[in-house]
Amino acid sequence: MSAGETGSSQVKSAVRTVELLEFFAGRPGMHSLADVQTAVGYPKSSLYMLLRTLVDLDWVETDATGTRYGIGVRALLVGTSYIDGDEVVAAARPTLDRIADDTGETIHLARLDGTNVVYLATRQSEHYLRPFTRVGRRLPAHSTSLGKALLATHPDDRVRELLPEKLEPLTEHTLTDREELIEELAVIRERGYAIDREENTLGLRCFGIAIPYRSPARDAISCSVPVARLTQGHEQLIKEALFDARDRLSLATRHL
Fold first, then answer.
1. Radius of gyration of the chain from Cα atoms?
2. pLDDT one-digit tens code per residue, 128-176
3. d(CA 43, CA 45)
4. Who's near 223: CB < 8 A, 6+ residues apart?
5. How far apart are the C-alpha atoms of 236 and 197, rounded to whole Å?
6. Are the C-beta atoms of 72 and 61 separated by less than 8 Å?
7. Residue from 145, 249, 127 nearest 201 by CA
8. How far apart are CA 191 and CA 256, in angstroms?
9. Measured between alpha carbons, how far is 76 from 29 in angstroms, rounded to an integer?
10. CA 103 → CA 100, 145, 224, 246, distances in Å?
11. Distance between CA atoms of 24 and 29, rounded to whole angstroms?
């Protein structure tokens, strides 16, 4: 085997390893070898050897029968390391604490990753609220106030490149037409914040605002509140708190 062939083989193995870990990360629970093969399309013998290697290294784990596979503890360690080492998350912590205290509602910090947002930090509401987000969770950008606030910092042509014409509905309120979403992004640019009107979770309204330490922005913060508890006065308080948080985070992240 030539050096070039060896290098090509190593890259292929690395790509397959990453794709396999992403498969498990996006599908919680345990999966049979047949199910994994159907999803990733690798030859069965190669897939089995790769899985066994990852099991030995604790990146993948098996059930008691040894025939079903799921994400391993090593993946958690890497994810935690990413959060712990991120300068924006560190800079945002005091501001997230402040806005959570000011509003009494659930606060999120998230990052745009392709067509999704990934949650980096959360402050839970002082009221009872069924957990619906967690650090590391990915949600479609078009259905969240965080994602829409971030998409609004991109030109319309770039949004068209990122998103398909028809968007996946998460609830009956989700915008599913890309051009309608683009029209809303123009409104978001005008007023400075985005609204999720039960588009991701029924009964929940969210307000999001981008952090402009980069252009286009890649991070945003949001405040989530049950519709049943959202009064006009409380909504105004949330908006003012978000603008104040944006200004604080702009200062805290200006060196990044």
1. 21
2. 555 456 777 889 999 999 999 999 999 999 999 999 999 999 999 999 9
3. 6
4. 99, 103, 105, 106, 107, 206, 207, 208, 238, 241, 242
5. 16
6. yes
7. 145
8. 26
9. 14
10. 5, 17, 10, 15
11. 8
